[in-house]
Amino acid sequence: MSQILTEIMTVLKDSNSLFNAEQDLMIRCQALIATALGQGMCQILVGSVSN
What we know:
mainly alpha, 1 helix, about 95% helix
């Protein structure tokens, strides 16, 4: 019985770290998108000012 519980706990821990990795990936992607959007906005603003 304890062997089964141990395996269940291992699976839960793995799925939890998988969830954390997914969250981390989403945060990084959002940061990259925000950075790209910010740079794009700056280029548009600079472009419209220089014209």
